[in-house]
Amino acid sequence: MSLEFVGIDPDTEKDGSPTVWVEEETADLILQGEKADALLAAEIRGQSWSPGHSAGIPAHESVTRIPARMVPIIRKACDAAERRAASGTEL
Fold first, then answer.
1. Which of 38, 34, 22, 29 lies closest to 67 in space, CA to CA?
2. Which among 17, 36, 68, 71 has most CB atoms closer than 10 A?
């Protein structure tokens, strides 16, 4: 697996660094961020967000909180992923 680093939370300290990458072979976004706290997880578990889908968070998935200040970095990652998926080549 090969990752393209896109960006890190500009307001982060040395530890706990929300980060965004694009996986080069699949163009998937890879996000590192703060784990959802109990209140957020309970809110998500208590809703069925899409018709035909079960409520809750499946055991093989997790919820990650990404700071709003990282929207420009995520947008950059989305653009990179879209270009990679469209071209199938390295960026």
1. 34
2. 36
